[in-house]
Amino acid sequence: MSLFQPIIINKYLKNLDDSNLNLCWDKFKKHFQDPTIQNNIKENKEENYQYGFLLDLFVNVFGYTLNPQSNYNLTTEFKNQIGSRKADGAILKDGNAIGVIELKSSKLKDLNKITEQAFNYKNNQPHCRYVITSTFEKLRFYIDNAVDFIEFNLFTLTKDEFSFLYLLLNHNSIMADLPVKIKN
Q: How far is residue 81's CA from residue 77's CA, in Å, rounded to a whole number?
């Protein structure tokens, strides 16, 4: 089953601010589609690029504010409410995790291997609806369940694919719960 209906996606894509979208696309391309940077990312271990990935994609492209900045809505190493396990990142709204982010190095070829881990973090956050898993090259986005997802290859995205990724994951969309509205 598809997570989103194409006719609904197209309706929302038409409402994106083209100038802002183009600016974000240029930032994205400059970083994630540069062959030298791609090779460096592929050589990094998970812990070497976690913070950088959140900064490069979620802050610089999608408009989040990363801890320790004031009024941050993105943080690293977010602890489960029960137990001591931590998600690699979390998107916060009113101090609650509404999205968890689980990252692995690009050496991991099968993102299915981290789905269970990511959803364990989600299930320990009562306000959480979104799960993002990534190998820094591929990124999966889930809403509510581990069955339906959409996957993006960050290294080969076209502008149209980027527009869809941006629609779903930019700060304003997530804070307004737009992905859920588009899905429903």
A: 13
Cβ atoms of residues 174 and 130 within 8 Å:
yes
Structure tokens of 61?
A: 């492209």
Q: What angle do CA 118, 69, 99 make, to 5 degrees?
A: 20
Helix (H) or strand (E) holding 130: strand 130-134
Distance of alpha carbon 99 from alpha carbon 156, whole angstroms:
25
DSSP string, 64-125: --BTTSTT--EEEEEEPSSSS-EEEEEEEETTEEEEEEEE--TT---THHHHHHHHHHHHT-
Closest Cα partner for 174 from 128, 121, 119? 128
pTM: 0.91
Which tokens belong to 57?
């994609």
Split the chain (184 residues) into runs of 10 and give each run's mean pLDDT.
80 92 97 95 86 96 95 81 72 93 82 82 86 94 92 96 96 96 90
The DSSP output letter for 56 is I
- Compute the distance between CA of residue 49 and CA of residue 107 in angstroms, rounded to an integer: 13
